[in-house]
Write a structure and sequence with these properties.
Number of strands: 4
Largest sheet: 2 strands, antiparallel
Oligomer: single chain
CATH class: Alpha Beta
Strand content: 15-25%
Radius of gyration: 15 Å
Number of domains: 1
CATH topology: Peptide Methionine Sulfoxide Reductase, Chain A
Strand order of the largest sheet: 1-2
Length: 106
């Protein structure tokens, strides 16, 4: 499974805010993929590190589902975080290397 690890300063942004940003930039009804990237390696998931984060993620998912702002059942999973292994260099900034997005900072 491929994942993005987000490191943040909770004094500047809350976990709740990060979860809301995630829901706003993600199709939570497309479980095994996003857009044209389909398959189990593109599993849609939120990973939590403790019971507080788990409760926040579940509450935000449930609120979104009840809001009627999604076109079907939310299939994004909420899972306990495990060891994170950094991908090989050729996977880093893949879209930039392919010329699909501008490099960061430009």
């Amino acid at each position: 499974m491929e994942a993005v690890r987000v490191t943040y300063d909770p004094k500047r942004v809350s976990y709740e805010d990060l979860i809301q940003i995630f829901w706003g930039n993600h199709n939570p009804t497309q479980g095994n993929g996003q857009g044209v990237n389909l398959g189990s390696q593109y599993l849609a998931a939120v990973f939590f590190h403790d019971a507080e984060q788990e409760a926040i993620a579940i509450a935000s998912r449930d609120a979104l589902q009840q809001s009627g702002h999604v076109p079907g059942p939310i299939t994004t999973q909420i899972l306990a975080a495990t060891d994170f292994i950094v991908a090989e260099e050729y996977h880093q900034q893949y879209y930039e290397k392919q010329g699909l997005v501008k490099p960061r900072g430009n």
